Input
Amino acid sequence: MNGTVFMTFPVTATSHTLADYRARGGYAGLEQALRQHTPAEVGERAKASGLQGRGGAGFMTGLKWEFVARDAPVVYLCCNIDEGEPGTFKDRWILEHSPHQLIEGMLIAAYALRVRHAFAYIRGEFDLPLRRLQAALQEAQAAGLVGDNILGTGFSCDIVVHRGAGAYVCGEESSLINSLEGKKGFPRNKPPFPAVRGLYQKPTVVNNVETLATVPWILVHGSERYAAIGVKKSPGTRLFGVSGHVERPGLFEKPTGYPLAQLIFDDAGGILGGRKLKAVIPGGSSTPILTGAEIENVTLDPESMGKAGSMVGSGAVIVIAEGTCMVRLLQVLSRFYAHESCGQCTPCREGTDWMNRILERVIAGRGTPADIATLRRIPSGIQGNTVCALGDAASMPVVSFLKKFGDEFDHYATHGRSLHDGRLAP
Ligand SMILES: Cc1cc2nc3c(=O)[nH]c(=O)nc-3n(C[C@H](O)[C@H](O)[C@H](O)COP(=O)(O)O)c2cc1C
Ligand code: SF4
Output
């Protein structure tokens, strides 16, 4: 364990318990916030730390909190525990091994935002993370850390756990809010943004698990220390989940600005079976793919990743070895997005389905070069024309795969078989 904010303790059979969390200094940030600071001061600290949201979009956390009107009589906080982006498994780790860190972060945020009722919206498929969260909440309630008059300070906050029903789109914040209200998980048009009109039409802040679980560290160690970690423009550490064709897949906590190649070749043990690196999807399945050559000097921060033409997204690094058929890989991704589109807007509903059906046809050996030309055209009809970003998320892989591996698509459509037949990656 060599992390700074998260992976600072050896995972044991009891590391998720209140006793263990307290033994490693847990809830000191909450004590400090409630006893030494006003809500506005806590908000200032979050802002000064430079913390950016870890849910994918990277919005400044302190700024998001600031958007909530100071005189709003009712404000809600929702923790986004949907973690549906393929390749992402960082929030689950926090819940399984340090759930009190999230609870403490939620309480500090709730204090800063003057929230009386906070919600933890958890992905329906999560089992152990749910049980760990519920058990931790019970412990925290029994210890007077959640509920009425927390730590005798007069601040009260309840945390309600709400299970989703397995829809990727419910991770989108306004869809999450609709789902919490018991409605169909359709994303809402924005504006108004949730900070203005969110849950039950009240100002609402939606934050990711990793974002909120970082807040206690900032309170205890100070905004300046956090702002000094990693790159200046997007400081801190991040949890990177490395999966795919590597020798040692897993979760690694690294400062922003850490070299992507080092993460893959040193931390994750290099490419499976000693093969060559073909490509990397660097920030979850919707982020544009980079070729092996393109990652050489890329570091794990928005600026460097942006220059390379991709995004840090949710920190999910998917590694692809030489020999992998990119047509089949894209079809797997496209099937996911076609299935998960909520169907509310035509470009996304129709476009994701067309892309998937074309790719299905191509890999079945019934495609034509005209199919690939159509596939190239579809994303421009989706991007920027939809209610939520799922349409863009579905389009970006298609655009980048075709741009970088177009020859494989042309070959499959022309010859009815993969360029890689007979030498496929596992
Ligand atoms: C289709 C879609 C799915 C999303 N899924 C998640 C998710 O599972 N978890 C998450 O934290 N954010 C997800 N987001 C981003 C949220 O809308 C929102 O930006 C985020 O929860 C804000 O938290 P942050 O500011 O702490 O990053 C998703 C966005 C979209 C468009
Ligand atoms: S972009 Fe797709 S998922 Fe988002 S609202 Fe429109 S149809 Fe639904």
About this structure: The CA atoms of residues 325 and 421 lie 8 Å apart. The chain has three domains: 18-227, 237-321, 326-415. The first helix runs from residue 18 to 23. The domain at 326-415 is CATH 1.20.1440.230 (de novo design (two linked rop proteins)).
